[in-house]
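Consider the following assembly input.
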Amino acid sequence: MTIDLLFQMFLAVIGAIVLYSFIGFIPGTDETSVLMPVTLAVVLSGVQPIVVLTFFISAVITLNLMNAIPTALVGLPGGVLSTPMIEHALYLKERGLATTSIKKMATGSVIGTAVAIPVSILLANVLAPYSESVKNYASLLFVFGAIFLSLIGKNKLLALISITPLALLFQGLRHLYWSIGAVPQDKTVTVSFFLGITIGPLLVSLLSLLNKKEREAFPRQTNKIITIYKSKEESLRHPFQTISKKEAGISAVVSFISNFLFFLSPVGLIILLGETVSNREKDPVKKASIAITSMSALSHATYLSGVIIPLMALGIPLSPVAVGPANALFNAPPVLSLDHNLHHLLSRGEFIFALLFAGILASIITYIIAMKYARQLTVFVLKKIPHEAILGLFIGFILLLAYMDAGLVNIFGVLLVGIVCGTLNRMGVNYGVQFMILYAAPWITTHLIF
Amino acid sequence: MKKERIDLWGDLVDLKDLLLAIALCSITTMSGFFLAPHTDTTKQLFFGLGGAVLGFVISTLLIKPKRTVIEEEKH
């Protein structure tokens, strides 16, 4: 470990915090679509694998906490994982407790991180001996993964039905690119299809705006009025002064449990565990406080275990987090592939060092930001950053990566993937299922010939 | 009369502004990409990303956010 590398890791933490503090405050930005493309860019830029891991872990810690802040302050969820908190956060906000909520969330996030990192590392070490036997069945496991994620989703039958057609679409495009010479025979286009899946719902909404009838049917408002209460006390406090012992204990326990369920969907776990523990409390304010604290802890714990366990133990993305937002850590051709990714490139010691380095540093810094500057940052983002610019940035990003992957034809290929996946997403087939299908596609299509 | 805005991806947007932002970001991103040396993929990526960020900054300066933020004293 050289000083230079350590400095790069430090920069990765700071970069992730600065970037995702702003993104986190923007209402409605989906975690997968903001984490995946940027991480991919970091991987493709060719920095050391340990720096990539440091960046990703810091990004997750920052994003999950910052997403919760606008939920507490103005009732707008910053991302998907903070949607389960809305009801409880609004209840506390109406009682003038928004600032207290943020402090509880910040402490919850520290607890979630502090529990998840060591437990995930231990679990990964327990699972690691089985990795060789698991890897032999990797392609089949993706098929089972797609079926499993379909079955735990909301629209089971619909998701199951979509598996094979979607696999045909991905493989079909790959074979087309090979046959017309858009990419060399040894290159499998994956990255831009991931982005196509990610951007799908947005793309479908944008395109349906071109249809006059649909455009008129879109939800409209002349203005969005957001009220923020000013508060006098915005002091930095010791974590344990912000929450009760009971809240701390419950948050730690649910975070611990969620580590063992890393293969389930994070938002599902947050709702399941968070609501279960908060429903046992009778007093409404205490109930809402327990809910937001434990949910904040869970959002960190589920994400961290979902990436750390598959990455350290197996090297193949077998969890909704690994196959979604963390995908670029497993597979980002030409830099990383399923046989040559962070799992293979980093030693156990390097893993642990990077996880602790990013976990501790990012937790401390984001905790301070949340405690002291939550309100100012929310006001700044809401007042200064137009939603249009963010959507524009996304489109620019997709264009670039699609073109770099397989040229002009792939821009239309990604458009096609986006339209199909976005439509399926609207109908109720979630990202996780679609990502798994992309991995399962080669196996599925070659086993369909009878 | 106030113009109606469309609720897209969790927030309000104005269609004309949206088209402007998309056009701006697309142009700056791809210009960045084509300005980079053709043999160096890392540089192409970085120039492209730089272009995307530039487009984002310009759109942020040109377009007014559609939210009205009211700050009230704590009750």
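The longest strand of chain B covers residues 67-73. Ask yourself how this observation constrains the way the partners meet.
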